[in-house]
Amino acid sequence: MRELIWANLRARPIRTSLSVTAVALQVFLLLFLMGLTTGIVREWGERVGGIGADLLIQPPNSSIFLAFSSAVLPQQLTPRLAQLPGVKVVSPVVAVVDTASIHLIYGIDYVSYNRLGRGFLFHAGTAFQGPYDVIIDDIKARSRNYKVGDTIKLLDADFRICGIVEHGRGARYFIPLQTAQELLGVERRVSMFWLQSAGAVETLRQQVVRLLPRHQVRLMDEYLSLMVSSNLPEVRPFTRAVILVGLTITFLVILLSMYTVVLERTREIGILKALGCSRWDIAGLLLRESVMIAFMGLIVGIASTYIVKEVITSMRPTLNVIITLEWLLQAVALALVGCVLGSLYPAVRAAGADVVTALAYE
């Protein structure tokens, strides 16, 4: 039977190639898109964790994606928060996405932000010397060959790079808080507050909640636990859509391919039945052929994913694609399910073929 399966696959190389390509496309879509999503989310979580804060305060109904946080919090809350018992550092931040470059930028009060956690670790340059100075992290500097003193355009304004710092402090670009507020027209408003505790974090959280009962007050451990793609409610519909599209492509291609196989090999099926093959033997032959296509598609799809991953990450070091064992196993399972489901009807049709009619088929 194994030789017969390989002979069947070799008999129509173009059709076999198309079927393998369909399975490989499903595997590639799932692995690469989910790997890219997982990498972005995990890398963002690591950057947020590197800030060194214990609490994050946001406006009501704010997204956990800080780039979408509106600057509506009064900056005057800073001294009130600083007066709470157990507060070590309060740092107001304006988060904004530069629409021209899709870069996340933090407008920061340098003194308070630098006191959070380990502070900035400079590779070159210094802190802000003027209102239109920008600090960038080392990954962004390396990817664009930026140096201290270079001029870059952010928020439709020219900024001078004054310092290059170790990555992992939230954003990749940092500009003075007042400059960000002026450019965005949100004077005395901020997007969030980062708090570092000098004592019990949960006690401090309860105090902040009493002060700002309608606001989002998140522990950093709680926030970072959300930085897994499977835990993000915003990502779940996207994940389901990718799985559904890939499964549909595989199902339809294998269904059409196997159905055509049955029509072309009606006479051969009659001969096999005349030689004593049972219905299960005939159905199993087609199912095993579809499984063989699934495994070939898996090999091509996984190899393509890793090749594209290496190319993308070498061209864009700021992008992080993480292919996990969980998604590899899901890709294998979905490819097999799609191929088996697609071949079920043709297998049943072939198994139920009448021997006399099949032998007379031209």
Task: Provide a brief overview of the structure.
The chain is an alpha+beta fold. The chain has 13 helices and twelve strands.
Entry keywords:
362 residues, alpha+beta, 2 domains, ten-stranded mixed beta sheet, two-stranded antiparallel sheet
Structural summary, described in words:
The protein contains 13 helices and 12 strands. It is elongated, with a radius of gyration of 29 Å. The chain folds into 2 domains: 168 residues, no CATH class; 155 residues, no CATH class. The strands form 2 sheets. Strands 1, 3, 4, 5, 6, 7, 8, 9, 11 and 12 form a 10-stranded mixed sheet that branches. Strands 2-10 form a two-stranded antiparallel ribbon. It is an alpha+beta fold.
Domain module tally: 2
Unreliable runs: none
Q: What's the total number of strands?
A: 12
Main beta-sheet strand count, sense and barrel state = 10 strands, mixed
Instruction: Please trace the helix and strand order, writing H or E for each element.
Output: HHEEHEEHEEHEEEHEEHEHHHHHH
The fraction of residues assigned to DSSP E strands is 15-25%
Say what oligomer this is. single chain
Shape: elongated
State the separation between the terminal residues, measured CA to CA. 24 Å
Going by helix content, strand content and strand pairing, the class is alpha+beta
Q: Work out the radius of gyration.
A: 29 Å
